[in-house]
Design brief:
disordered C terminus, globular, 16 helices, mainly alpha, about 425 residues
């Protein structure tokens, strides 16, 4: 009987063995591909809202509602992600984008506004889930392979944001191809065909999200919120850290500069020179620049001090664009006049690529123990800033908007330098 028991014990590990896990890097490839399909559709649909849903400014109002909802719900997104787990949160989060595309097939106040409200909720979940999942994969990859955490986070974020930035290229080229013969956003048939294609992209993206490996870390599951007070304490935990306080201005500026492209650059810089038909091409160049910069910037990230150098490059380029537009720019005719908005878009894309990669990597490094709450704060301040631009842009002049952007850049970059020079010491960032 003892011999039999020994045989059973010897066989037990074989029976209990689990199938081989997908590598952490492969999970990031799948995550990036899923976001590529989802946001190629959503990003292009967002860019078209002011031209295809013009009755009563339905498209612009819907976007304002969306980002206001995003801001409010992002405050509570971190406990939802912890409860669902980041991989399940990503699947749930995608549902709002699917509903938004469906609403655009029948755009009315009764479809677009509720869809935008719901998308604000699910967007907060998907983005907190994305930041948590990517950080978990990067840190696990670094630990399993004895790699430095800073460069690994930078590399993984560089890949993700590089792929994500390419959605601006792909989505706008799809729009350009399907709406090229239409006027003011294309014929009804062309528009409906476009959103059906976008719907197909969404479905592929959801399927890819379902293929992601589970990443419910033991230390995450061990922390539960037994009361509302405990949950609230977890949500606001990053705000008690002076590093987050000094990062918030740069986080908010990252939202302002994104909305500036969507709401101001396309309307006030591109359209007067290239017309509505040129918006897709200008945004595609902006996206291509964003892709290249994201991939390169991610490779240079090793900690706060390397991130400071990379962010400085992006900030200087965007500052140069703002002062050029404010003091020197005037629309011109001819080839040179047509090239200027495209060049501005390329320079602005560099800054966006820098901010996306560096902010995500730094939050993963500085707030590993409360990463869901940290990424929730990222989206609270980003989406709030985006909502401000959407609501302000119809009411203020281009000059006033440029002054607002330049002032915000100056304050946010100064705060970030203070974080680097005064608060953070080299020893606080793991190599």
């Amino acid at each position: 009987m003892d011999a039999s028991r020994d045989e059973e014990a010897a066989a037990e590990p074989l029976l209990a063995a689990s199938p081989p896990q997908r590598s952490h890097a492969a999970d990031v490839h799948v995550l990036s591909a899923a976001f590529l399909f989802v946001f190629s559709a959503y990003g292009a649909a967002q860019n078209l809202q002011s031209t295809v849903n013009t009755e009563g400014d339905l498209g612009t109002v819907s976007m304002g509602v969306l980002y206001t909802s995003f801001t409010l719900f992002a405050v509570a997104a971190s406990p939802v992600v912890r409860w669902l787990g980041p991989s399940r949160a990503l699947v749930v989060g995608t549902s709002g984008y699917l509903l938004f595309i469906l609403a655009n097939l029948v755009p009315t106040w009764y479809t677009m506004v509720p869809a935008s409200l719901y998308l604000g909720f699910t967007a907060s979940i998907i983005w907190v889930g994305q930041g948590t999942y990517l950080t978990s994969a990067a840190l696990s990859h670094a630990r399993d392979n004895n790699l430095p955490e800073g460069p690994t986070l930078g590399s993984f974020n560089g890949e993700f944001w590089g792929v994500f930035a390419s959605t601006q290229v792909i989505g706008n080229l799809i729009s350009l191809a399907l709406l090229r013969n239409g006027k003011d956003g294309g014929s009804v048939t062309g528009k409906n065909l476009l959103f059906v294609v976008f719907l197909g992209c969404m479905i592929i993206g959801i399927v890819l999200m379902c293929l992601l490996s589970q990443r419910d870390e033991k230390r995450d599951n061990a922390s539960t919120h037994s009361s509302f007070g405990a949950m609230l304490k977890y949500i606001v935990a990053p705000l008690k850290n002076r590093r987050m306080i000094l990062l918030i201005p740069l986080i908010a500026y990252s939202g302002l500069q994104q909305a500036f492209v969507w709401a101001v650059f396309t309307k006030s810089i591109v359209t007067p020179v290239l017309g509505i038909s040129g918006v897709g091409g200008a945004m595609a160049i902006y996206g291509a620049s964003d892709v290249v910069c994201s991939l390169i910037a991610g490779r240079f990230t090793s900690g706060l001090h390397s991130a400071t150098f990379v962010v400085s490059v992006g900030a200087i380029l965007q500052a140069a664009v703002l002062f050029w537009l404010l003091l020197l720019y005037s629309p011109m005719e001819g080839v040179l006049g047509a090239a200027v908005p495209l060049f501005i878009g390329a320079l602005w894309g560099v800054g966006d690529g820098v901010l996306n990669t560096q902010l995500s990597a730094l939050l993963g490094l500085l707030f590993e123990d409360v990463k869901e709450a940290a990424f929730a704060q990222l989206k609270v301040w980003q989406s709030g800033a985006i909502a401000v631009i959407f609501f302000l842009s119809p009411s203020i002049t281009l000059q006033a908007m440029l002054i607002l952007m330049a002032t915000s850049l100056f304050i946010s970059f100064g705060s970030f330098l203070l974080l680097t020079l005064v608060v953070e010491k080299p020893s606080t960032i793991r190599a």
